[in-house]
Amino acid sequence: MRSSKKTLLLAMAILLTAFLAACGGNDNAEESGEGEDNNQVLHLSNGDTIPTMDSSMATDEYAFQFLSATTEGLYRLGKDGEIKEGIAKTHEKSKDGLTWTFDLREDAVWSNGDPVTAHDFVYAWQRAVDPETGSEYGPYMMSGVIKNATAISEGDMKPEKLGVEAVDDYTLKVNLENPAPYFESLTTFGTFLPLNEEFVKEQGDSYGTSSDTLLASGPFILEDWESTSTSWTLKKNPDYWDADTVQLEKITFDVMKDPQSAVDLYNKGELDRVNLTSDLVDMYRSEDEFSTVTEPVLTFIKFNQTEKESLQNVNIRKAISYAINKEAMVNEIMNNGAIAATGAVPKNFSFHPETGKDFREINGDMVSFDKEKALEYWEKGLKEIGKDTVELEFLSGDTETGKTINEYIQNQLQQNLPGLKVTLKQVPFEQQLDLTSNMNYDMAISSWGADYLDPYGWLNLWLTDGGNNETGYSNSEYDQLVQSSVTELAQQPVKRFEALLEAEKIVFEDAVIAPLYQQGKAQLTNPDLKGVIRNDFGAEYEYKWAYME
């Protein structure tokens, strides 16, 4: 996820936005509605606005967070990534792994009273891959997975040919293009959420732009929200099929880009959880409410290889990748549990199917800070392009936390690569997504959080013409290795894993990205807040089982 986007993801936002997350209170005396349990009100901040609540169009951490809270998919993530019942009660998988049949519950309804049926999934998935919709994630998540998704997204087939069928109102059959070992976890992701066809068509272009143009089928209902809103509320959905499990009556959110302001509100008892910047960590480290966590979210610099001659040169890109002291950045500037990133797949996320060894440990450090090596590549690259100076624009977010990191990166590059001038372009999150999507950048900071539990979700980012590539990069050998993991090697776990290991090596031979850090969070959390689940992929937080003690 985009985390940035991408994942997502992202995915994107502790340093791109308030905590980037792509991705990222204490109970107060706020008045609540009649009959509401005042003890079960949670107050939180958000790093930026929610760009959209249309599941077909969502690409970022914030959208997927609130889509997960308000809409029920086939399955939902529980504690430790356990797949929990959603609209699907059970499923069966054919022996060849190509046909999945889901038995749906009959007691799930939309907030307008309509039943949630298999037809809602069929419509949503077809809409997501229909080229006329303009979805990024539909083709990205379904191509090569759901039968005919690629041909449909390329305009060669009608959406009705997608391999998804409502056998009856409460039986959904899905035909895959190739066996997908991660498909069950994929169904928990936002792009695969159902949509009420009649309602969506009735709203037209306004769908997903405000609370009035949305329906809910999940634990909460989104209230008081428009796409430009800086505050909104999640309210318990009384018609949710599992409403008896949901204890929180309300969760309020306020956009806060200044971490110090958020901490001040936390200390006043007006927020129940806040993220800490490095300058605040030491002040609160000894507090019982303090915690840090390292997350499977990578932040990196990606290069637009389609415009400037300098960034079309692999040695220039390698020089930039080696020129940043990432250890100093995470330890001295961030100080929040983040670790220096040295590859394209995060640490402690994916493990060898036979040995159990971490993907990151097997491939090791693909690129680390090395000033001498950076200078060597830099001089070689300058010679190849016939220049002694290079000017580049660096696109990034505009939060206070992000600005500190951006300036550090700018200084490192200009200091360690003589003749390089880096100009910062710091913009709001939604604008940043738009600029990167349209390839309107030189270098851009980006983050990616996993969309499902598999390294393929990280390595398919750089496929030729991939929906989230956004660099212009293309390598046929790389494409073949990555695609083999979902075709001929799909049911050969060891060979599949080894193909992905080889693919990652090519990412750094070609210097597609410059990895920066694996995201961490230092937080203060109200000790009365219990039951919040932090997910390794998809929506960062799950509040269905949360409560105030």
UniProtKB/TrEMBL annotation:
Leader sequence segment: 1-22
Region (Disordered): 29-48
Family matches, as PROSITE patterns: PROKAR_LIPOPROTEIN
Organism lineage: Bacteria, Bacillati, Bacillota, Bacilli, Bacillales
Primary location recorded for the protein, binned into one broad class: other
InterPro entries: Peptide/Ni-bd, SBP_5, SBP_5_dom
Record localization: Cell envelope
Compositionally biased residues, Polar residues: 38-48
A Pfam family recorded for this sequence: SBP_bac_5
Signal listed as a keyword: yes
Naturally occurring in which organism (per UniProt): Salinibacillus aidingensis
Domain Solute-binding protein family, residue spans: 82-469
Protein name: Peptide ABC transporter substrate-binding protein
Domain of life: Bacteria
Keyword Transport attributed: yes
Keywords from the UniProt entry: Signal, Transport
Family of this protein: Belongs to the bacterial solute-binding protein 5 family.
